[in-house]
Amino acid sequence: MLSIVEHDYGTPARASAKLVTLTIDGREVTVPEGTSVMRAAALSQINIPKLCATEQLEAFGSCRLCLVQIDGMKGLPASCTTPVAHGMQVRTQNKQLAEVRRGVMELYISDHPLDCLTCPANGHCELQDMAGVVGLREVRYGYAGANHLDAAKDTSNPYFTFDASKCIVCSRCVRACDEQQGTLALTIQGRGFDSTVAASQNVPFMDSECVSCGACVQACPTATLSENTLIQKGQAEHSITTTCAYCGVGCSFRAEMQGEEVVRMVPNQDGHANHGHSCVKGRFAIGYATHRDRILKPMIRQKISDPWREVSWEEAIGHAASELKRIQAKYGRNSIGGITSSRCSNEETYLVQKLVRAGFGNNNVDTCARVCHSPTGYGLKNTLGESAGTQNFDSVMKADVIVVIGANPTDGHPVFASQMKRRLRQGAHLIVADPRTIDLVRSPHIAADYHLKLKPGTNVALINSLAHVIVTEGLVKEDFVRERCEVDSFAKWRKFVALAKNSPEAMQEITGVAASEVRAAARLYATAGNGAIYYGLGVTEHSQGSTMVMGIANLAMATGNIGREGVGVNPLRGQNNVQGSCDMGSFPHEFPGYRHVSDDTVRHLFESAWGVGLHSEPGLRIPNMFEAALDGDFKGLYIEGEDIAQSDPNTQHVTAALTSMECIIVQDLFLNESAKFAHVFLPGSSFLEKDGTFTNAERRISPVRKVMQPKAGYADWQITQLLANAVGYPMNYTHPSEIMDEIARLTPTFTGVSFARLDELGSIQWPCNAAHPEGTPTMHVDTFVRGKGKFLVTEYVPTEEKVNAKYPLILTTGRILSQYNVGAQTRRTENNRWHDEDRLEIHPHDAEERGIAEGDWVGIASRAGETVLRARVTERVQPGVVYTTFHFPESGANVITTDNSDWATNCPEYKVTAVQATRVTQPSDWQRRFREFSDTQEALLKSAGADVLAAK
Ligand code: SF4
Ligand code: SF4
Ligand code: SF4
Ligand code: FES
């Protein structure tokens, strides 16, 4: 889709079913009640001049440019703040209005630099446009009076500049920060002529609460707030709509382009997941795509101690294929496999699993969702019948009580968090269950009703005690359960959770949460109207991850909180395409659409479509691949876009497994940690360089569109296709749309999905089928996907990872807003200015006991390994719990995490590791070895040749 200009109807749409008819400039207009006169006019192509109004924000009425005449009303009311009324007669143009508007503009322009020709906003400045619209020809006051033309610029933010000399004090930025982002970092300081925009207590933007979401930049009608790239490069000449490649919110953006160069990423107002909002990653952190560290030539080597050798694509692919065939001939068909990535598109992951099943002849394919949301798939499939969240994001605007369990939306899913905060500011209740005091617990105008600050590893104990209250206090929605759920399973579950051992009083010793708090929270969830649960990796990454997901589904069913807007069970997916990579059959036991490989009918369908016999036995999961590698049975691995050496638990175990393999093929943008153990490197493409689709946490399939040619020559799907052909399984796609057509043909929940349909609708939430040709925003409406909802007994089983005298603290891990997962992308951007190292959060009490002060180096030892980080002493964590992020490889957070995993899916227990923390003065042994190994690998890379790296 090519367009630069987006419509702006001036004020937000209203959803009222009641319609109002009025007349504007002689035209009869019918709009929903509550619509502004300005919007009603714009909808009938009458554009009233405006400066302080924009569709993204509630009207404010400060600029007085949008005045109109309305019969029967005194004076000249502002059309942006005046709601329509039945029979209203409005005039938007006459001599008096024209004079008043010109007068307003004269005042603005008399205090504005007249440097339009060199201004970065030239051509898209609303002030400039309005001067034209009102016919401004002279400024009677001259330009010599008191003005702000010398006001200083704030260049502290690496991505945008605040040039106060151009500010017209329209307050759009302030309102964007308040209403859209919910950070409330900006104010208008001073009065009258002295009014200025101030960040926090009038400090530079970088020193304020600003989280660099860009909403104020987007809202600013002048060049006062401008992207630095726009200032440096000038304006774009075309734009292409695509989808952010960072998190599972799946924000839609217009990539504004000059030829093949991105000028800026502008959040798309029509984006169904983000409605014109963004965060610092998707909006600004795309520099990695053109970073000098990118490897642009294929490379091979025999041993990981050899220098890399730059080769042609033909040689690299031929070598990779012959190695894989050699290994299979020597060690057997099951000795190789593949790992897909949630970073890659649906089409790419589909091709990798097809290559493994049809080309390698086994089911040894797994995905990084194994280490994050595999319990979601298992838990929701077995209770509700579908491995996905039940709602769209907009549903939160109808929730009356929001329950956030083990998720940190303001850091992990920022754009959705802003929407959630909007609903909370409107008055919805909030319950947070988290070992840490996440920002949501208390932020401007928001305070959680209950923060259930449980001990890590006790989720299931908590959910059972919440359920106990609901069952024993008569809070079950009996009608819903009787009509919609399996009554036998409910009876069994009811009996179980009603047991005294599951009461909040009995469980408080385990969870650390006061029984009274649990009782009150359960009552609130069950009785406050629409109850919506949002959860994250704090639920899944446990030894009882799947049990907890089932416990959440049980709770939603028992209270009737499923099957309509405002309720539901909503996993917040980490990466951009976690949902999609699972949907596409990346698991060793499932074909696309979550159909088991042992199902003969399904297997025959794929056999006939792919023209090859397929195996009915599930293949190896990632941890099984490591075990088999260490046993000498698994020797070859194709990894597309994933960095298991950094992201998977127990790093030393992972690297030992990688070292024991004979051919590791890594397809990626950078020489990541896994690539340091590789024998073949195939340079991949960024999301800007390919066509495809991502599926976000709402099951929303969104288009990803190529805005530049692949820098290394091929898009990732093409590389997989080359490899498939080389191993002897023919693939002949000419465009990713053909891959999607095949997915849609073979996957019932994708029926009718195509690139053309996505372009037409913008996005589609699966299931998409004959009954729901435009997709399904809310699932399980009249009936559950599995028919009747199934309750499952969720016995609390404590993790085997116990604290003791040697390891008395529990380490839990998480993410931060400015960095993303293993950091391969964000570490190569200015986002490092916000977070340039992983730190260990430790409670003041624990710190004092150990003589640890803020900033000290702290050794963290677990049963798996030891690393060293600097301390952040904070009460965000509770005594006995320490916390860190894992964005920097040298931190070695996963050197400490153990092999413990979810009983059903092997999802690692990242969230509970028993550790000791001590003050130290030097890096750990592992860190020293890591540094040496990394330096060696960097040196071996440099020897590959000058052309390998983009600009080194
Ligand atoms: S910075 Fe921009 S949006 Fe904010 S008050 Fe000034 S002109 Fe308006
Ligand atoms: S970038 Fe976002 S958080 Fe920062 S001031 Fe602007 S709107 Fe507020
Ligand atoms: S919220 Fe997620 S999808 Fe949206 S811009 Fe940020 S990282 Fe991208
Ligand atoms: S646009 Fe209505 S008062 Fe500014």
Structure, explained:
Helices cover 30% and strands 17% of the residues. The chain has 952 residues and is of the alpha/beta class. It binds iron/sulfur cluster (3 copies) and FE2/S2 (inorganic) cluster (FES). The site of one iron/sulfur cluster has 13 residues, from helix 4 and helix 5.
Spell out which ligands are present: iron/sulfur cluster, FE2/S2 (inorganic) cluster
Write out the strand line-up for the largest beta sheet, numbering strands in chain order: 14-13-28-27-26-15-16
Largest sheet: 7 strands, mixed
Q: Hey, roughly how much beta strand do the residues contain?
A: 15-25%
For the record, give the distance between the C-alpha atoms at the N and C termini, rounded to a whole number.
35 Å
Rg over alpha carbons = 29 Å
Task: Indicate the topology.
Blueprint: E1 19-24, E2 27-32, H1 37-43, E3 69-70, E4 89-91, H2 95-110, H3 126-133, E5 153-154, E6 160-163, H4 172-181, E7 186-189, E8 196-199, H5 215-219, E9 225-227, H6 228-233, E10 238-243, E11 252-258, E12 261-267, H7 280-284, E13 299-300, E14 309-310, H8 313-331, E15 336-340, H9 346-360, E16 365-367, H10 374-383, E17 401-405, H11 409-412, H12 414-425, E18 429-433, E19 442-443, E20 446-447, E21 450-452, H13 459-472, H14 478-484, H15 487-498, H16 504-511, H17 515-527, E22 531-535, H18 537-540, H19 545-558, E23 568-571, H20 578-583, E24 590-591, E25 595-596, H21 600-610, H22 622-631, E26 636-640, H23 644-647, H24 651-659, E27 663-668, E28 680-683, E29 692-695, E30 700-704, H25 716-727, H26 736-746, H27 755-761, E31 764-765, E32 809-814, E33 839-842, H28 844-849, E34 857-862, E35 866-873, E36 881-885, H29 893-896, E37 913-919, H30 925-942
Parallel strand pairs: 1-4, 15-16, 15-26, 17-18, 17-22, 18-21, 22-23, 26-27, 27-28, 32-36, 33-35
Antiparallel strand pairs: 1-2, 3-4, 5-6, 6-9, 7-8, 10-11, 11-12, 13-14, 13-28, 19-20, 24-25, 29-30, 30-31, 32-37, 33-36, 34-35, 34-37
Bound molecules: iron/sulfur cluster (3 copies) and FE2/S2 (inorganic) cluster (FES).
